[in-house]
Amino acid sequence: MPHSKTNSTVDGSRQFEGEEYDAIVIGAGFAGLYAVHKLRDQLGLSVRAFDVASDVGGTWFWNRYPGARCDIESFHYSYSFSEELQQEWKWSERFAGQPEILKYLNHVADRFDLRRNIQFNARIVSAVFDETASRWDVTTDTGVQARAQFIISGAGNLSVAKDLEFPGRETFTGEVYSTGAWPHEGVDFTGKRVGVIGTGASGIQVIPEIAKQAAHLTVFQRTPNYATPIANAPMDDEFENEVKSNYREYRTRSRNHFLGVPYNDVQPSALAVSEDDRRRTYEERWKQGGFRLFTDSFGDLLVNKDANDTVAEFVRMKIHERVSDPKVADLLAPKDYPYGTKRPPLETDYYEAYNRDNVTLVDIKGAPITAIIPTGIKTADGGAFELDVIVLAVGFDAMTGPLLNMGIVGRQGLKLTDKWEDGPLTYLGLTINGFPNLFLITGPQSPSVLYNMPLAIEDHVDFSTDAIRYMRERGMETIEPTAEAEQAWVEGSNAIAEATLLPGTDSWYMGANIPGKPRKCLVYLGGAPAYRGICDEVVAKDYDGFVLAGAESNSPLPVA
Ligand code: NAP
Fold first, then answer.
1. Domain boundaries, the chain
2. Could you tell me the distance, in angstroms and rounded to a whole number, from the CA of residue 302 to the centre of ligand 1?
3. 486-522 residue pLDDT tens
4. Ligand 1, closest atom to CA 63?
5. How far, in Å, is the centroid of ligand 1 from the Cα of 98?
6. Angle in degrees, 0-180, between the axes of helices 247-255 and 453-474, rounded to the nearest 10
7. pTM over 0.90
8. Closest ligand 1 atom number to CA of residue 166
């Protein structure tokens, strides 16, 4: 790998001792792996990636809990950049489980020989922009110092665990596990009294699996979810042949879809059809599984409360059909927020788990958990639950958490934590004024988590590496959005969110799962196709909204 380890002085700036690269990549998940490949193999740059994990995989390295599975079909939740890779990889199930996705990412790392550019077991603790040298100086907890012109962050959107709001975890005499950092050797629940806290997408996947093994499972639910069937199945040869013969067309269709999947049966409004037709559509989508109900039934579910009420009622009815005890069904059926305004989880036998004798649902909405105690969990109404194992499925400091936990400091000593004190400020969800040459892959205020992640990642890595190529060809040193472009993007993104039902619900999309976190919509809700159109236009206009500085520049854009 072409890098030097010298006491170099760059342009008279302070002495730098460490490794020098053209680009540093943060993370070795879907984003980091593709970024390394692009930067090294297509742009010919020197590149170093750092990941705190001991191997590749990102989210799929950490989330090894039983039942962990992707909610988008394997064929679509995978890289599209290499036709050979698409053709040679065989998915065994319609929706791949975590072990298979991790295997796939390992295959990608080997096939493209990416590991030699990745330093594992290394957490980035600071990234400081040296304005004189126009370089980023990165330090890891292992003592590595590295300098690069560019940083591409593939730090992930859901990679920093949420802190517990109640004390006592360390006093518990049993075992505690987090779904987001599951032990590699697995966990044996046989004969144990297990408590699961959290009924989001992770909780909903792990609960049926633990229920099969544990002596008793107690589920602590604060807010019920609108979970719908994933309808997983073994891969069908005919379907595989069909997709592989027409992969390019499938990818185009995915890229032209709001969520990044090749569905096209959506009807404009749930209110424009008869009750019978609406019911038939919901039944069909429910049966088809995946995100069909959410994204391929009616186009106004997220913007019209009356339309949303129809699907919410349909899901509540299904829950009641599947859960034997009406009181339990009632607790499991969400009533006070619209469908889809929290990320809708997909499930396999989730509701049936509550029909088992060894599973108890505890409603903690009115009587929250106050503490973990040596013997188990205590709730505000005086309840004390004796447990051998506690499983935390309480979620993440989503979208901004990974970036704010890395000690990022931009121009003039500006800390990202200060800049984002009242919520994220980005241009295109990709770049930040005051932080030149830093690219955020699937950053806040981009479609990110409401788009098929591998495709969202490819789009963002391509945008970043195209910008780098453009700069290199013109001898430019820095790219940075103007403050005006950033403000306009943030206002536009927030305005789109306000036109939807999302801001009214306490969800991680809104930062509302973390006490004290600014309540701002963290996702661009204009849809991936519109978003891509905007990015294309920015590029076509020679990086409209950016200042590029160096030997030549695209001024007259005002310097922020
Ligand atoms: P989550 O959706 O944020 O759910 C966390 C759960 O923990 C919620 O039920 C929450 O209740 C509960 N909780 C949090 N703090 C609590 C407290 N102090 N006391 C009691 N309950 C508490 O987190 P997640 O399930 O890990 O999922 C996060 C995201 O990861 C998903 O939305 C999805 O995007 C992604 N994910 C994807 C997959 C997949 O593709 N298959 C699987 C898992 C996760 P409240 O709702 O009341 O806050």
1. 16-160+398-553, 195-392
2. 20
3. 999 999 999 999 999 999 999 999 999 999 999 999 9
4. 43
5. 17
6. 90
7. yes
8. 18
Distance 382 CA to ligand 1 centre (A): 25
Instruction: Reduce the secondary structure of 2-56 to three states and give it as a string.
Output: CCEEEEECCCCCCCEEEEEEEEEEECCCHHHHHHHHHHHHHCCCCEEEECCCCCC
Q: Which residue has the tokens 């990202």?
A: 416
**229 DSSP β-pair partners:** 347
Cα–Cα dist 456/532, whole Å: 10
For ligand 1, residues with CB inside 6 Å are 69-71, 158, 165, 197-203, 205, 220, 222-223, 343, 364, 369, 393-396, 449, 508, 513
Of the residues 95, 513, 514, 523, which should be mutated to test ligand 1's pocket, given the most ligand atoms within 8 Å of the CB? 513
Is residue 412 classed exposed, middle or buried when 0-12, 13-18 and 19+ CB atoms within 10 A define those classes?
Answer: exposed
In 3-state terms, what secondary structure has residue 530?
helix
- Does the CA dihedral 287-228-205-402 come out positive or negative? positive
Q: How far apart are CA 228 and CA 294, in angstroms?
A: 9
442-462: pLDDT as tens digits: 999 999 999 999 999 999 999
From 3.50.50.60, 2.70.98.70, 3.30.420.10, 3.40.50.11740, which CATH number describes the 16-160+398-553 domain? 3.50.50.60
Tell me how far the alpha carbon of residue 35 lies from the centroid of ligand 1, in angstroms: 28
The alpha carbon of 207 and the centre of ligand 1 are apart by a number of angstroms equal to: 13
Distance separating alpha carbons of residues 153 and 124, to the nearest angstrom: 11
